[in-house]
């Protein structure tokens, strides 16, 4: 699976679990760190943890294991590193604070497919 397809699949998984404001940023032209960021947020720490666990479980089903999983002590954000795609899941206030969309404003935004929820549920 190519990085772009992986990012879209992850976004679909998160969207299917009611993550809010799911975004895909193509950052490869701006950093050597990764090719794509997938950003999303939940309303509280249990939802953020649930979204991170779900994304990790669904990716494992597809044969992808995280290289690294990070979170803060209050579970206001998680970062799941899949080398060419890094998932950032936040609580809303934490997402607003880090404002990755602004930091990576020059990055191309990848639109989610129209049938994104169905893709996440069927994969």
Brief digest:
By secondary structure, the chain is an alpha+beta fold. The protein has five helices and six strands, in the order H-E-E-H-E-E-E-H-H-E-H.
Distance between the termini: 13 Å
Q: Write the H/E string, N to C.
A: HEEHEEEHHEH
Question: Taking Cα atoms only, what radius of gyration do you get, to the nearest Å?
Answer: 13 Å
Q: Looking at CATH, which topology would you report?
A: Beta Polymerase, domain 2
* Whole-number mean pLDDT: 90
Low-confidence stretches: 116-123
**CATH first level:** Alpha Beta
| Beta-strand segment tally | 6
Helix segment tally: 5
How much strand? 25-35%
Q: Which characteristics define this entry?
A:
123 residues; alpha+beta; Beta Polymerase, domain 2; 6-stranded mixed β-sheet; disordered C terminus
């Amino acid at each position: 699976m190519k990085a772009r397809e992986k990012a879209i699949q992850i976004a679909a998984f998160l969207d299917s679990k009611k993550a809010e404001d799911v975004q895909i940023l193509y950052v490869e032209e701006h950093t050597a760190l990764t090719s794509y960021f997938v950003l999303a947020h939940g309303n509280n720490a249990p939802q953020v943890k649930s979204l991170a666990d779900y994304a990790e479980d669904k990716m494992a089903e597809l044969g992808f294991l995280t290289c690294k999983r990070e979170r803060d002590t209050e579970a206001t954000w998680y970062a799941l590193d899949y080398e060419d795609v890094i998932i950032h899941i936040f609580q809303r206030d934490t997402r607003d604070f880090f404002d990755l969309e602004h930091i990576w404003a020059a990055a191309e935004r990848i639109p989610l497919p129209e049938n994104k929820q169905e893709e996440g549920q069927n994969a």
